[in-house]
Amino acid sequence: WTDQDNTDVVLSCTAGCSGWITFTDGGASVSTATLTGTPLDAHVGANAITIQGVSGGETVQASYTITITNVNDEPTLSADTTTPTFTEDGSNVVLYDNANAADTDADETQTFEEIVVTITNVADTTEYLVIDGSDCDITSAATCVANTATNAGAAVVTMASTTATVTWTADAGGITEAQMETLIDAIAYKNTDQSPTTGSTRVITITTLQDGGGTTNSGDNSVTVSLASTVTVAAAADLPTSAAVTVANVEDTLIT
User: Fold this and answer.
1) I need a labelling partner for 181 at 20 to 30 A (CA). Which of 19, 46, 148, 201 fits?
2) For residue 201, how many other CB atoms are within 10 A of its CB?
3) 64: how many CB neighbours lie within 10 A of its CB?
4) What is the mean pLDDT of each successive set of 10 residues along the chain, which is 256 residues long?
5) Which residues, other chains included, contact 49 with Cβ-Cβ below 8 Å and sequence gap of 6+?
6) In 3-state terms, what secondary structure has residue 182?
């Protein structure tokens, strides 16, 4: 600010400087001031402030607008984990409950695009992660399901020794918060092997959730979590089987 008589202009903020904005007058003979602050989601958009200058008994006010551009924040995810037992020839065991996926950007509603799940100790040839209504074969690296039954996303498996990683990606546009929570609460394990490997548990962990907000301006669109459910695999007591045998023999001859 400038006074034509070279008199110091005493500055103050008379409107809009509460909350996240701190106003500091530069002091005597400076005629400048500093605005500092870290805006949050609630401050995205236009923020109007009014600065008042007083010099030589005269008062002048000027209005300014500080425009805050949104930067995407990472989502959050919580869920109850379980420790079920899967018994040979039994029903799928559900792994999570009460999922709560949230978009932390208050100024806009985002969708969710991806979830990553790991499964340890995969040992049999017919083990599956049931995700988004479809059976995903977790025994080899492949696109296990191109269009899952509920939301038509793609499930892709990668392998590192006996650990499978399933990445489920929604179609363009993503899915809603409620749809993602339903998807997580329905994730299940199944094993159709007639002699399943029972020596080690399968630890099934949700590791990543990604929203559709992007990473522009150093934004963050994914959260790293560790939601682990542990499945014990149990063999069933199968009935014995026998094979019919036809034997040819002649009269009066002993046969074993």
Assistant:
1) 201
2) 15
3) 12
4) 85 90 86 91 91 91 93 95 96 98 81 97 98 98 97 97 98 95 98 94 98 92 97 87 86 87
5) 13, 15, 16, 17, 21, 35, 63, 64, 65, 66
6) helix
